[in-house]
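Recall that a protein's primary structure is simply its ordered list of amino acids. Everything else, from secondary elements to tertiary packing, is in principle encoded there. The following example makes that idea concrete.
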Amino acid sequence: MKDLSKDLEQRKASHLYRRRRVSDSPQQIEMQIDSHKVISFCSNDYLGLANHPALKQAFIKGIEQYGTGSGAAHLINGHCRAHHQLEISLAEFTGYPRALLFSTGYMANLGVAQAVLGKGDSVLADRLNHASLIDGGLLSGARLMRYQHRDYAELADKLATRNSGEKLVMSDAVFSMDGDIADTTTLAQLCKQHDAHLMLDDAHGFGVLGEHGAGILSHSHIDPGEVPIYIATLGKAVGTAGAFVAGSKDLIETLIQQARTYIYTTAQPPAIAVATLESLRIIQHEPQHREQLHNNIAYFRQCAQQASLAISDSETAIQPIIIGDVEKTVAISQQLFDQGFHVTAIRPPTVPRGTARLRITLSAAHQREHIEQLVTALHALI
């Protein structure tokens, strides 16, 4: 084995060493992290549901009914009534015939690619896709071709070169580090023109975009039939854990038969499915959470522009401020933490070199004074 300590020291010297902070509080806006009281601006809990009383009560009810663990994979004896009902509800909500639960979004993306692609096929992927999409393409055995971020002319050229095998275009719906949204209408049109299939990962759009929070397809007014493979996670806006794939009956049955990350993984605890069903009810019937989130996004952008902060062109809860230099980005993140704000420094390889940034994420639970205080601190530091 190579000298691991040398590699770790090099990471530290390059300001790329990652350290975990320890929280002693629920996932909420005001948190206790590393013994500091901080206001969190780095959670993906966009609707503030992760500590919602109704979800906690549903989780407790689920534990009382099903216990704490599922005990086995879905195909052994780990698939319970709550899992089954959640899959039906997710399919109905997204407009697809079927849906299938996975334990994580990473496993969903790996499982789909491995199950539906092989040698002789092609994967075409946006360069800023999440790591799980990239890894899914690599592990599938298909040829991976990447196009420049949101450069659909380049995608069209690459699609035109592939004359044999299956063609699958993979894209984030909302890009996790930039907050911008894929042009899903153009993607669907290109796939139709070139006889390719489209797979969208809506991890950061599900629950917050579109009518009733149904996600990117509703937001873009796209029929589910134009996006054969739809993936979203449940650990962000939904406030629980896990992920799902939605699609045709044949797609879901194929995944049940062939997706290794589904077949060989213990099912998520049933209580999580019970809590997720309650979260879906809230998302669909309590629009005030989503409305407050979008009000907070607009207010942050207004305050940031007034403070002359160089914010990105993002209409989502992800509002990055690109610093560029890694050492400076880490230093600002630590200074913010010392002042009571938790804003994560995002560095290569998560983002391209020269684009280290502060990734600010907003929640429906933020108050205006939280936003004002953060912008004041940022204005003094940047």
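Residues 275 and 326 are 39 Å apart (CA to CA). The chain is about 45% helix and 15% strand.
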